[in-house]
Amino acid sequence: MEKFDKYKVKAEEEVSRKRAELEERERKAREKREKEVAEEKAREVKIREVTDEEAEQIKMEEQVKARLDASEKPEEAQVVSKDDDEDPKDAGKLKPNVGNGCDLPDYRWTQTLSDIEVRIPLPLPGLRSRDLAVVIQKKHLKVAVKNAPAAIIDDDFQHDVKIEESTWLIEDKQTLLITLEKVNKMEWWSRLCSSHPEINTKKINPEPSKLSDLDGETRGLVEKMMFDQRQKELGLPTSDEQKKQDLMKKYAA
After folding, report:
1. Are 160 and 181 in contact (CB under 8 A)?
2. What residue spans define the domains of the chain?
3. What is the model's pTM?
4. Buried b / exposed e across 8-38, counting CB within 10 Å, b at 16+?
5. How far apart are the C-alpha atoms of 29 and 87, rounded to whole Å?
6. Residue 75 DSSP label
7. Using CB atoms within 10 A of its CB, is residue 39 exposed (0-12), middle (13-18) or buried (19+)?
8. To bridge 118 with a disulfide, which of 12, 166, 178, 226 should be the other Cys (CB 3.0-4.6 Å)?
9. Transmembrane ranges (predicted)?
10. Which residue in 103, 96, 100, 95 sits closest to 114, CA to CA?
């Protein structure tokens, strides 16, 4: 106890310093997300000012350019998140997009704790549902244009999905929208499919307002997960580890 008291003040100062650094990083990340959302809205307004035909042409040109750039310079197609105190295990992982998913050359996916949305730009204009082959299985996804030489996606999911709750449709005549229901609603996916690029789930920041939509038990579990994740980033014990320490102190006394 004498040694504990000796270093207690120093430890508390270190914890306060780390907490201040974490809050500063969170503030910067929040400002960056707000800027990205504002820029996205500005682009949407600009697109609405042109005709439907012009907008479709512009989008097709952007998609072709993005795919060409990605094939010629793949290292520039992925923005890797790096911090001074980043866990070495997370090195090389991508930073989540504003939807807590990832923007890739062939598709974009976003997620909540309960479901995933995948948006795939259609490679040809005027495609209909009957022109596509979309197969959603518990552990596998296949998306292809019929009679095409290769599928757009043909890979295993990272985790299981509920087939009966998963759907797909063509959105705005130019995007395939796939909605997937997660089996485990208490975990974040780091990638859509097992061989695809991985995001750093520690960088995910769910909207606090969404917690109010959950029932009491689920909300408590989510808040516990968020607390434990923050404790690990600060190098502090998780809630379960803290309980064990409290019990040990109690019996030692």
Report:
1. no
2. 207-253
3. 0.53
4. eeeeeeeeeeeeeeeeeeeeeeeeeeeeeee
5. 18
6. G
7. exposed
8. 178
9. none
10. 100
